[in-house]
Design goal:
This protein is α+β, with helices and mostly antiparallel strands and about 70 residues long. Helices cover about 15% and strands about 25% of the residues. The protein has a single domain, classed as Roll (Ubiquitin-like (UB roll)). Strands 2-1-4-3 form a four-stranded mixed β-sheet.
């Protein structure tokens, strides 16, 4: 039996960031690009604001209630 390799040579699996449509929470606390809070709004409304500004919506903290996103 051949010896097993000591190192796993496969590329590490990268977790994709939760951005835009990949965010699965219905309500989000949204922070604007300049740091001002937009408040708790629906995911659809947050995506619309981000699209209007030609920016991405990024999930910053999913452990908060509601989860925090930044535009």
């Amino acid at each position: 039996m051949p010896p097993r390799p000591r190192f796993d040579r496969r590329a590490p699996v990268r977790e994709l960031p939760n951005i835009n449509e990949r965010i699965g929470y219905p309500n989000l606390r949204v922070v604007d690009a300049d740091g001002s809070q937009l408040g708790v709004i629906t995911r659809e409304a947050a995506l619309e604001v981000a699209r209007d500004r030609e920016l991405d919506l990024v999930l910053v903290s999913e452990k908060a209630d509601p989860p925090v996103c930044r535009i």
